[in-house]
Amino acid sequence: MIYEQIILIAIGEKGEPLLKVIDSCNEVCLKVISTVMYFTPIGVFCTIVPVVEANGTSTIVSLAIQLIILYVAFYGFAFIVYGGAVKFFGKTSPFKFFRAIMPAALNAFGTCSSSATIPISKSCVENELGVSNQISSIAIASFAALATMAGLPAGVMGVYISINTLCDMGATCVNVIGDMAGCVVLQEKIDLK
């Protein structure tokens, strides 16, 4: 795709009509995606209503409790394990570490995307924590590329879709914190400053 665009730009005026078509298709795709995203909360709500109707509000209460426990586990893990690794192996204060990585952690929480957070993570560890670009470029990109998937039966997908985003926000945030903790530890062990 990039090759074709370079060729279209290189041939100049003759390639402009096709470039305009491609740009128009891109705009249509973006509009379709934004429209779907706008109506997604309504769709998710409509998938939850039958579950609540069949099981009562106990389902929502039980999911809320599960979500609270999950977040306590996520951030307990982040503060104890990653904070400990940064302190003992990375020779950096956990308070300094967590303060420095806050922009990346909040971005990961809000976007649910480790990949979208890579530039902010690199900036945090390089500018605030003194990690070299060589380490951050390799470590953050490599750690962020790892992913896992789980299969669920179709009957629970409505409930899963509604709760998964809330779970994923915390999981992605902790994942990004781990990437940056790994950078700090590697920097101390390799010392490429």
Automatic annotation (TrEMBL):
Keywords (A to Z) from UniProt: Cell membrane, Membrane, Transmembrane, Transmembrane helix, Transport
Xref: InterPro entries: Na-dicarboxylate_symporter (IPR001991), Na:dicarbo_symporter_sf (IPR036458)
A Pfam family that the UniProt record links to this protein: SDF
Subcellular location: Cell membrane
Key word Phosphoprotein present: no
Domain of life of the native organism: Bacteria
Membrane-topology annotation of the record: Multi-pass membrane protein
A single cellular component GO annotation: plasma membrane
One GO molecular-function entry: symporter activity
Designated name of the protein: Glutamate-aspartate carrier protein
